[in-house]
Amino acid sequence: MARVTRSPAPSSPAPLPPVAVERAIRTCPNCGRELAERRCRLFCETPGCGYYLSCADYY
Ligand SMILES: [Zn+2]
């Protein structure tokens, strides 16, 4: 019989759970505004901020 050992929670370097990370990645790190999604890009709508992510960055 194979014995499967599963560690309940491997210590991860990031303090946030995956869901929170996904949420955070849609929020502008500069001003905290939720990023708008346009085609293959997430961008911040705050004037003067100019933060954006391309799909290559967040996928
Ligand atoms: Zn912003």
What does this structure look like?
The chain is α+β, with helices and mostly antiparallel strands and 59 residues long. It has a domain at 18-58. Helices cover 19% and strands 15% of the residues. It contains two helices and three strands. The protein has helices at residues 18-24, 55-58; strands at residues 36-38, 41-43, 52-54. The chain has a three-stranded antiparallel sheet with strand order 1-2-3. Bound molecules: zinc ion (ZN). The site of zinc ion has 8 residues, from loops. Zinc ion is lined by residues 28, 30-31, 33, 44, 46, 49, 51.
Structural class: alpha+beta
Gyration radius from CA atoms, angstroms? 17 Å
Adjacency order of strands in the biggest sheet = 1-2-3
Q: Give a count of the beta strands, DSSP E runs of length 2 or more.
A: 3
Small ligands present: zinc ion
What are the defining features of this structure?
3 strands, alpha+beta, 15% strand, 59 residues
In short:
The protein is α+β, with helices and mostly antiparallel strands.
Topology (SSEs and partners):
Blueprint: H1 18-24, E1 36-38, E2 41-43, E3 52-54, H2 55-58
Antiparallel strand pairs: 1-2, 2-3
The structure holds zinc ion.
Zinc ion (ZN) binds next to loops.
